[in-house]
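Lab manual, section 2.4: Encoding a predicted structure.

Procedure: take the sequence of the chain (126 residues), apply the prediction step described in section 2.3, and record the output as structure tokens. A sample record is shown.
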Amino acid sequence: MANNYCESSSKLKLTHEQLTKAIPIVEKVMAEIEKEGHIGLGVVVEYEDGLWFYNEESIVPEQVVQIAQAVLDGLEIDEPFVFSWCFRCDKPRLDEFGGGACVVRRGKPAFWVDATSIALEHAAKN
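Recorded output:
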């Protein structure tokens, strides 16, 4: 048996004033995520010079987007937040590795990119 993981560590940098305003937004979104029936949160958020998103075992990128989007929208921050992740497996199983990235911008849908789709798109064109 093999275990699969999604790993990420990223920071949405904020001023002290922005961070103070962001904390209640983050807590509200995290409570909403838990109400949606998820077994525990797939993201840990620590408050240090901004919002540090990570998880010791396996992160849920969609939850990072939910939180970051709410903060960018709520605080009217125009700078994009970009984060990435990697997929890994604790055994060398075929096609169990990869990764992706996402851009979150105020008032816009998140833009998702993953390594496999880019490779397949390139292969189809060439």
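Check your result against the sample. The CA atoms of residues 87 and 98 lie 5 Å apart.
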